[in-house]
């Protein structure tokens, strides 16, 4: 039973009733064809979440369909299903073949030729997940480069047959914003090449990030003209002040940052766009500086960090920091009265938290938690 005050509770209950009817009555399934497209899509998403098998392709594979995933749940064998998707779904924008999410022992056997044939029929594709697709080849990536000019998101994680040759084909996808090719046979040189070829990239994930960042570091120190990129999220964990300077300089739109070293000083080089900041073993995390420098911050993680400059929080009873902060995680490995008092002050002042995680805070007692709740209220928690 969903939470009674939730606005989604009635929707969830009614959806579950319809789902039970669908799964137990073929006649109801046939009648669903006349339902509005938005309701059909909603039902499909819920059925996928529940991993209900034998979905009627005549209902959920339609001309208006924009998103398809969990192909193993449909009532058709894989190749006829792909053929039907290619023939019918002319407005398809989101397609996931990720077999990693399949039940144990179930394998999607999709020959590269069948995949290439499908890609030729869905030119509007914007998001494609081929993660763990063992039969993905350079030829498949070449087809993506030629036939998917609107592609924004691509994941080819664990596509072990993909090499530099295939990755280079993606240079034609100039609108690509998110690329994840971890655990492939691409080299550092191939990774750096495609990074430079895609000007719209915002998310770039690879097992070779350390090598790519080393090349970016060399470029930073050797070029007289500064080159910046549109990246908002990387795999980099910053361990020194120089790398923090480089990262925030060449990626001025960075939204997510992880700092992992007690020697890193946060008195500079944080971007105004940061929404996610994770600090591990940072000696002194200046709360006032972070609050003022990162007004858009939504998630803050403090792992084994001491926080400083908290007295400014007491200057005005009406002042509340981190107005956009929704998630706060605190892990205290070395509890002291001073550390606890600083964190208590921070917790009392963060009024808009939706998620709060406290770990290893051994000096946090029932009475302290009661006081925090009384003073904060946590209306959105």
UniProtKB/TrEMBL annotation:
According to the UniProt record, one GO cellular component term is: SCF ubiquitin ligase complex
What SMART domains is this protein classified in?
LRR_CC (SM00367)
The Gene Ontology biological process annotation of the record reads: SCF-dependent proteasomal ubiquitin-dependent protein catabolic process
Q: Which Pfam families does the entry link to?
A: LRR_6 (PF13516)
SUPFAM superfamilies, per the entry: RNI-like
PANTHER family, per database record: F-BOX PROTEIN YLR352W, PARTNER OF PAIRED, ISOFORM B-RELATED
What's the protein here called? F-box domain-containing protein
Q: Which organism is it from?
A: Strigamia maritima
């Amino acid at each position: 039973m969903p939470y009674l005050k939730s606005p989604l509770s009635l929707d969830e209950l009614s959806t579950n009733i319809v789902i039970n009817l669908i799964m137990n009555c073929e006649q109801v399934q046939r009648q669903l064809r006349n339902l509005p497209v938005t309701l059909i899509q909603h039902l499909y998403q819920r059925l996928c979440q529940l991993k209900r098998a034998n979905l009627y392709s005549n209902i959920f594979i339609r001309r208006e369909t924009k998103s398809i995933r969990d192909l193993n749940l449909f009532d058709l064998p894989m190749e006829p299903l792909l053929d039907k998707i290619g023939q019918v779904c002319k407005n398809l924008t989101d397609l996931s073949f990720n077999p990693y999410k399949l039940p144990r022992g179930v394998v999607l056997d999709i020959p590269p030729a069948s995949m290439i044939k499908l890609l030729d029929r869905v030119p509007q594709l914007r998001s494609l997940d081929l993660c763990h697709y063992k039969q993905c080849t350079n030829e498949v990536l070449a087809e993506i480069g030629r036939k998917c000019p609107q592609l924004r998101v691509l994941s080819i994680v664990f596509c072990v047959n993909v090499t530099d040759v295939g990755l280079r084909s993606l240079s034609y996808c100039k609108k690509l914003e998110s690329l994840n090719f971890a655990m492939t046979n691409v080299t550092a040189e191939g990774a750096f090449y495609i990074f430079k070829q895609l000007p719209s990239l915002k998310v770039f994930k690879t097992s070779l990030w350390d090598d790519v960042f080393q090349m970016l570091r060399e470029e930073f120190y050797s070029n007289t003209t500064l080159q910046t990129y549109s990246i908002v999220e990387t795999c980099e964990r910053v361990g020194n002040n120089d790398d923090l300077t480089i990262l925030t300089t060449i990626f001025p739109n960075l939204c997510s940052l992880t700092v992992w070293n007690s020697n890193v000083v946060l008195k500079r080089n944080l971007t105004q766009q940061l929404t996610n900041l994770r600090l591990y073993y940072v000696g002194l995390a200046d709360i006032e500086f972070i609050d003022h420098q990162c007004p858009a911050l939504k998630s803050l993680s403090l792992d084994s960090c001491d926080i400083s400059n908290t007295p400014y929080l007491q200057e005005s009873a009406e002042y509340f920091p981190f107005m956009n902060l929704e998630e706060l995680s605190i892990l205290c490995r070395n509890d002291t009265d001073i550390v606890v008092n600083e964190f208590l002050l921070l917790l009392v002042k963060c009024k808009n938290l939706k998620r709060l995680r406290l770990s290893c805070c051994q000096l946090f007692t029932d009475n302290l938690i009661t006081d925090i709740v009384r003073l904060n209220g946590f209306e959105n928690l």
